[in-house]
Amino acid sequence: xxRVDILIVGSGASGAAAAWSLSRDSSLKxxxxxxxxxxxxxxxxxxxxxxxxxxxxxxxxxxxVRANEADFPIDASNSPISLxxxxxxxxxxxxxxxxxxxxxxxxxxxxxxxxxxxxxxLSYQDLEPFFTQNExxxxxxxxxxxxxxxxxxxxxxxxxxxxxxxxxxxxxxxLNWHWWPSYSAINTRHHQGRPPCINLGPCNTGCAQGAKGxxxxxxxxxxxxxxxxxxxxxxxxxxxxxxKGRAKGVRYLDKEGAEHLQEAAVVILxxxxxxxxxxxxxxxxxxxxxxxxxxxGLVGRNLMLHxxxxxxxxxxxxxxxxxxxxxxxxxxxxxxxxxxxxDIECDFIRGYTMQILRGTPPLDTALSGYLTRRLPxxxxxxxxFAKTFNHNMGIAIISEDLPEWHNHIELDSEHCDRHGIPGxxxxxxxxxxxxxxxxxxxxxxxxxxxxxxxxxxxxxxPVKHAGWHLMGTARMGLDPxxxxxxxxxxxxxxxxxxxxxxxxxxxxGAVNPVATAxxxxxxxxxxxxxxxxxxxxx
Amino acid sequence: MISxxxxxxxxxxxxxGAPPASKLNIQDSFKQQKLEQQMEELIxxxxxxxxVKFNMTLTELETEQYLLCVELAKRKKVRxxxxxxxxxxxxxxxxxQVLSSLSAGSIPPFPNGxxxxxxxxxxxxxxxxxxxxxxxVL
Lengths: 538, 138
What we know:
The structure holds 2 protein chains of 2 kinds.
Chain A (H helix, E strand, L loop, with lengths): L3 E6 L3 H10 L7 E4 L17 H4 L8 H4 L7 E5 L31 H5 L9 H15 L23 H14 L4 E2 L37 H7 L3 E3 L3 E7 L5 E7 L5 E11 L2 H11 L25 E7 L15 E3 L19 E6 L4 H10 L9 H6 L5 E8 L8 E9 L5 E6 L4 H21 L2 E6 L36 E3 L14 H24 L1
Parallel strand pairs in A: 1-2, 1-8, 2-5, 3-14, 8-16
Antiparallel strand pairs in A: 4-10, 6-7, 7-8, 9-12, 9-15, 10-11, 11-12, 13-14
Helix pairs in contact in A: 1-7, 1-12, 5-12, 6-11
Chain B lengths: L1 H8 L16 H7 L3 H19 L8 H14 L1 H15 L3 H6 L23 H6 L8
Helix pairs in contact in B: 3-4, 4-5
């Protein structure tokens, strides 16, 4: 294989942003290796009436259920939350909701402000231009002027609230609580050659219309035009070092299982909060017997997952709540910042987002109604169903998950992928701070539904199948003893090895991480581009 | 026998335009999913419960009596009964005829999409009035 200047491992949210950013220097030869295959939007489940069924099979968030060729086993039996991901070209953006809020300024300084966890080695202001650049590339809808954030420059028009969203917004106003239309990577008008959303709902099985900003539709067409080569169905299993201890390249297996060595001047890891540490832990050598960059034992540690609570309310009237992008309606950050010093009862530090979700689609409504005994069988079934479907709204409480050493992933040699590469085992416990936060969020959500005039029919935490947000497993910092990479995403001990995904997060914030992960990727790559000639030459 | 079971758990409702489950392709799906044997086991079990509880065969039962037998069966063989009922719900609520009756908006393959009325953002006036709520980091 011909040596390249830059090799990117993973084509998801961060890998795509890295490929686009770095390929703006047309002199660089850039290759991306992706272990999954390319999905065809024309074949997405939402093109068939049975689309809801596929969420429990080939479009499941759970790789153990989905069991695609590219998936690796994840044993989450020692965790109250199971992990969700998608291994394919575009990564988890293929199945995500597109909810796209930024981290807050305070999220980068939690130690200074609240005396917990650690500060990031960079600030919100450092990332601000990259947030803006990323939102333009991804096509983010929203409304400028949010009182919970410093000013945004511009956004696409917001996704419509719908009748259900308006009822919830009015209830927030009555309680004098903050709310704002959601930040959504969903086109609300033609943008970057993609059409606007037509309010169908099933964003989480892939958007056949191309309105959702998944990176196969946003960054990748541009990056490919700029000359980036992508090789799919290539499973990277080892990062190879040269005699000086620098990254020489990677070893990978192609679709047929043939092994290749791909050399590169610079290696960039963008395999997600679990894919990246899995690869590092699997890359053992005499210099790194416990896995690459793991001399301080931090690789795979400090896993943060954003435990969720869920509360569902049902309105008397038909509010057509199943119509529209399910995950993107409005959000409240009334309880996002630490409540210390405020006149409210509070037994936790940091905070949470209340994300208002639209109503469930037909099959979800029927199954959850039956399983919770709200929908009887027999002659009363249809009347009861009609009083729930298109009448319900949900609230997801996204709690800030503080980093803890004992929450981690490790290689699982007993459960391997199709090539015999170890899967992972997750060890995760929720702490009391998180539990108290979720309890508080459930109580406030019930209060909100009550004011909105809805009856609460379901409230629980944590939501089991909700481990989408994978962060912290190769954290960044200034001190090599307490971090894996520096503030530039560069490995402390290997100058031509970079990590650009959410593995490097120091803390988790309390919002969906993708906007921040991609902004961080763009910042790292912007700096890398300035120094790349030197790195390539050396 | 299977038709009777389907129409007991998911009968039609003319007022809502909901078709009875027996008129859809649920029976075919038992074959496709290789659930025929389990279905047979359930019907046999329901038959035995019917005789014990009501001293009648299944076909002689009133709907409410039949539903009681289903409930009793679920308590004794929860995995079998739940699995089959969930399967029926899955096929029923993804059938185009049922989706059309639900006012679920546009149905896949989604030729038209759905419209949602525009918002009046003056509803945010109360939020603006409170001013910024984020913490400044110096």
